[in-house]
């Protein structure tokens, strides 16, 4: 406190003498102000309000630093898109498969379904995908599938799309389905009955299950248009098996399929 008062007195004295405008006051003020350079220096009481020139000198973690997992996933998205735009069919197929690996497609179990109160074409489903709470998902299936055929059914859910408000209901995902060219017939994709709700789907051979990449975030999926790039390559084959090009859509207990639509688009 004494040091602080001393410094304050020196500053006041400097100001007084400078205002008088005498020649001696200038030199005296200079000599008195030089005392400030010898005054004790205090460390800032609140380090968070300082603006250090060197990065993070106090060792506090930066709140703006991306986690390594988020950064690596973002790099994976960029690399996959670059590969999908490569030269040659093989390069394109490889890139599309990498992109598809960024989608978080899971086995779902519809716990209950009902008609949307505000939209005649929509169902609302409560779907278990292995999370602590079921997802609420809206689907435009009223014209194609009777409501009773949804109750208790195993389905395939694309779970890392950004939520959408559909006539007052927040829809957090999409039920995947096959449809013919004219979109007159639509059938839900389904896993083997033994598949566990929440299991992640992959494309390829049985041995590739353990090589799945981390799923991208909903923001990354939207920003990089991952679903829009992958979707045109999803179809059923002649046996109604869901395929990504030549790669089978799989669960740990078997492949994903629809009931009867062959060579159909999947969305």
Model description:
With 267 residues, the protein is an alpha+beta fold. 28% of the residues lie in helices and 22% in strands. A hairpin with a 6-residue loop joins strand 8 (177-179) and strand 9 (186-188). Helix 1 (2-20) runs antiparallel to helix 2. The chain is globular. The model is unreliable at 1-72 (pLDDT under 50).
Structural descriptors:
about 270 residues, alpha+beta, five-stranded antiparallel beta sheet, disordered N terminus, RNA-binding, tRNA-binding, tRNA binding
Write the layout of secondary structure elements.
Layout: H1 2-20, H2 23-33, H3 35-38, H4 68-84, H5 89-100, E1 105-115, E2 123-128, E3 135-139, E4 154-158, E5 164-166, E6 169-171, E7 174-175, E8 177-179, E9 186-188, E10 202-203, H6 218-223, H7 226-230, E11 234-236, E12 242-244, E13 247-251, E14 254-255, E15 265-266
Antiparallel strand pairs: 1-2, 1-4, 2-3, 4-7, 5-6, 8-9, 8-15, 10-13, 11-12, 12-13, 13-14
Keywords: RNA-binding, tRNA-binding
Protein name: tRNA-binding domain-containing protein
InterPro entries: NA-bd_OB-fold (IPR012340), tRNA-bd_dom (IPR002547), Tyrosine-tRNA_ligase_regulator (IPR051270)
- Please report the number of helical segments: 7
Structural class assignment: alpha+beta
Could you tell me the mean pLDDT? Answer: 78
- Strand residues, percent: 15-25%
DSSP strand count: 15
Shape: globular
**pLDDT < 50 stretches:** 1-72
Distance between the termini: 73 Å
How would you characterize the largest beta sheet?
Answer: 5 strands, antiparallel
Order of helices and strands: HHHHHEEEEEEEEEEHHEEEEE
Cα gyration radius (Å): 32 Å
How do the strands of the widest beta sheet line up side by side? 3-2-1-4-7
């Amino acid at each position: 406190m004494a040091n602080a008062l001393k410094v304050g007195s020196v500053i006041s004295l400097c100001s007084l003498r400078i205002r008088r405008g005498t020649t001696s006051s200038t030199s005296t003020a200079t000599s008195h102000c030089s005392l400030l350079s010898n005054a004790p220096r205090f460390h800032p009481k609140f380090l968070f309000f300082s603006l250090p020139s060197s990065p993070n000198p106090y060792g506090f973690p930066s709140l703006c630093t991306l986690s390594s997992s988020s950064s690596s996933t973002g790099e994976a998205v960029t690399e996959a898109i670059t590969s999908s735009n490569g030269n040659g069919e093989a390069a394109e197929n490889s890139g599309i498969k990498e992109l598809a690996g960024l989608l978080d497609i899971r086995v779902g179990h519809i716990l209950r379904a009902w008609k949307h109160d505000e939209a005649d074409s929509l169902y609302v489903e409560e779907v278990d995908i292995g999370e602590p709470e079921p997802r609420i998902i809206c689907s435009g299936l009223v014209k194609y599938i009777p409501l009773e055929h949804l109750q208790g059914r195993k389905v395939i859910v694309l779970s890392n799309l950004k939520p959408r408000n559909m006539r007052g209901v927040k829809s957090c995902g999409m039920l995947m389905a096959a449809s013919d060219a004219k979109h007159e017939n639509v059938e839900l994709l389904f896993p083997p009955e033994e598949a566990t709700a929440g299991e992640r789907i992959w494309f390829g051979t049985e041995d590739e299950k353990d090589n799945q990449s981390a799923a991208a975030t909903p923001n990354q999926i939207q920003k990089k248009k991952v679903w829009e790039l992958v979707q045109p390559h999803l179809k059923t084959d002649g046996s109604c098996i869901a395929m990504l090009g030549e790669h089978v859509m799989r669960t740990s207990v078997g492949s994903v399929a629809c009931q009867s639509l062959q060579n159909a688009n999947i969305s």
